[in-house]
Amino acid sequence: MAELITSDGTTPRRIADDHVRELAELDPLTAVYLGLNPEDDRLPDLSPAGAETIAALGRRTLARLDAAEAALDAAEAAGTPRDEAERRCARLLRERLTAELAVHDAGEVYRAVRNLGSPVHNVREVFTLMPTDTEEQWQVLGRRLARVPAALTGYRETLDEGIRRGLLSGPRQVTTVAGQLGEWLAGDVPGGWFGELVQDAPEALRAGLAEHAVAAAGALAELRDWLRDVYGPAAADVSDTAGRERYARWVRYWTGADLDLDEAYAWAWEEFHDLNAQMQAEAEKVRPGAAPMEAMKWLESDGPALHGAEAARTYLQGLMDGAIADLQGTHFDLAEPITRVESMIAPAGSAAAPYYTAPSLDFTRPGRTWLPTLGRERFPQWDLVSTWYHEGVPGHHLQLAQWSYVADRLSTYQVSVGGVSANLEGWALYAERLMDELGYLTDPGHRLGYLNAQMMRALRVIVDIGMHAGLDFPADSPYRAGEPVAPDAAREFFGLYCGLSADFLDSELVRYLGMPGQAIGYKLGERAWLRGRAAARAAHEARGEVFDLKAWHMAALSQGSLGLDDLVAELSAL
Question: Is the per-residue pLDDT at 2 higher than 80?
Fold first, then answer.
């Protein structure tokens, strides 16, 4: 178990670590993600009262931060300079808690139905992160499994309150989540996914765990039916889009910045036109005379592929291990714990996008990448390579594992729950570009996959801002110029310029509608990382110094979390 700093609350970093400790006590899922409190067998209180308890902690922490910063201001006025590490931590803590409370106070918790990262998804995911090496650990898992029905009851109470308040999620989310729950319940094993989970338990515990699995599945079935029969009709006339005011609040939450949405939208269109030209050139190398979509369809159906989930998992493990071996000592200096990362197959009923889960603070649970199979047995390679540079190495894994490694130098908050999505996703997209710059994507199919991934992120900025902020396709758009960026039009536009499967793109559209503002952080975050690197390089060269990219990478990855409002300035100074 990682040890958190105890404190008397006199400095921002100590206040931040106290906040993490208290949050881990209130929210057992946070504790599991961080590898804390391993004996805890609870699930979070997903009722309205539970959400208010978390919000109250945020308000208390902000009050303590106010007092600490007032004391630091007084000390600075008396001649004691402000510690830069304390300044960065205080700024992040204030910005994150303020953004979280703005979302809470707007009642977003009451409509948390979405196809990714909702409370019910988090309840299931926690079981994929719990250790099961010993009989005692299985017993903890079993006690937590027995609490699933109560947790889902609290979640339904919150959604019921949302119905009463007129705060509901859109119909696309309801239909999709109900379908996902059906997938979790499917199969020949009693208890569905939960039943499969406990099949490897010690024989002495298996029967009891199976009973808990069946009860958990029963609660899931009740929730699915309630979403379909009660919540769905209540949400039938709710807009799937957020509107500009609500959207701006979510953009601050996901990016740590008050973005100029119109500037970002116009910039994304510039990226679209540039990437479209690059993809046309690369498609010619894949299939002479083919347009990008034709070349990608050929790669998907007839190009090199892996057969079977295990073959895909093994291939991706080798890809990450090879990247670590090549980059270690040349472009990164990685501590030994960071060199371990595991390739995993995502549980059935996941969203379509691959994802990453960070290591525990003490590295007893390694970082892991997760590949959703969506029932497939054939996995084309063309789009996997760049994706795993993003999810694994040098993407999410190097950043988040390095954060865990330097947690004792910063604050636990800065390297864990204070993470800003656009910073994380921006680094991962930068990592894809870095591997292209270093010559790892010379295969035309792999490079077209990389460009397609970049195009997907540019399209995300266009459709996400366009849909939620109520914008039109611009005059230079090759598709429906001057018409509104409505969801159905956005999906069609996406399909015309992104060479991923229809099922994947359908899942993506639902994701953007259910998580307003999250999807724009990839491309805009990458822009911030690139601007910070360029500014740092220019500053070194102006001083007559050689810019050391390896040293810059390690310093950048050791800063902990920063919002986009601060990221470029901090990266420029390295």
Answer: no
Please classify residue 104 by burial: count the beta carbons closer than 10 Å to its beta carbon, then call 0-12 exposed, 13-18 middle and 19+ buried: middle
Residue 326 burial (10 A CB sphere; 0-12, 13-18, 19+): middle
Q: Which of 114, 149, 118, 116 is nearest to 43 (CA)?
A: 149
> Which residue in 299, 278, 217 sits closest to 458, CA to CA?
278
Give the separation between CA 306 and CA 379, rounded to whole angstroms.
5
Round to whole Å and give the CA distance between 374 and 349.
8
- What separation in angstroms does the CA of 166 have from each of 120, 185, 190? 21, 30, 37
Beta bridge partners of 393: none
> Whole-angstrom Cα distance, residue 334 to residue 331?
10
The 10 Å Cβ neighbour count of residue 289 is 8
pLDDT digits (tens, 9 = 90+) for 448-476: 999 999 999 999 999 999 999 999 999 99
pLDDT digits (tens, 9 = 90+) for 545-556: 999 999 999 999
**What is the enclosing helix (H) or strand (E) of 380?**
strand 378-380
CA dist 510 and 118 (Å) reads 13
Where exactly are the structural domains of the chain? 1-106, 113-238, 249-521
Q: Is the pLDDT of residue 5 over 70?
A: no
How buried is residue 222: exposed, middle or buried, by Cβ count under 10 Å (0-12/13-18/19+)?
Answer: middle
Residues 270 and 458: beta-carbon distance below 8 Å: no
Report d(CA 278, CA 204) in Å as an integer: 60
In the predicted structure, residue 140 carries a pLDDT above the cut 80 = yes
Q: Is 433 helix (H, G, I), strand (E, B) or coil?
A: helix
Judged on CB neighbours under 10 Å (0-12, 13-18, 19+), 31 is buried
Tell me, yes or no, if the pTM score tops 0.85.
yes
Q: Strands of 271-366 (E only): list them.
A: 305-307, 341-345, 355-357
The Cα–Cα gap between 309 and 344 comes to 10
Place of tokens 């989540």: 177
Helix (H) or strand (E) holding 66: helix 48-77
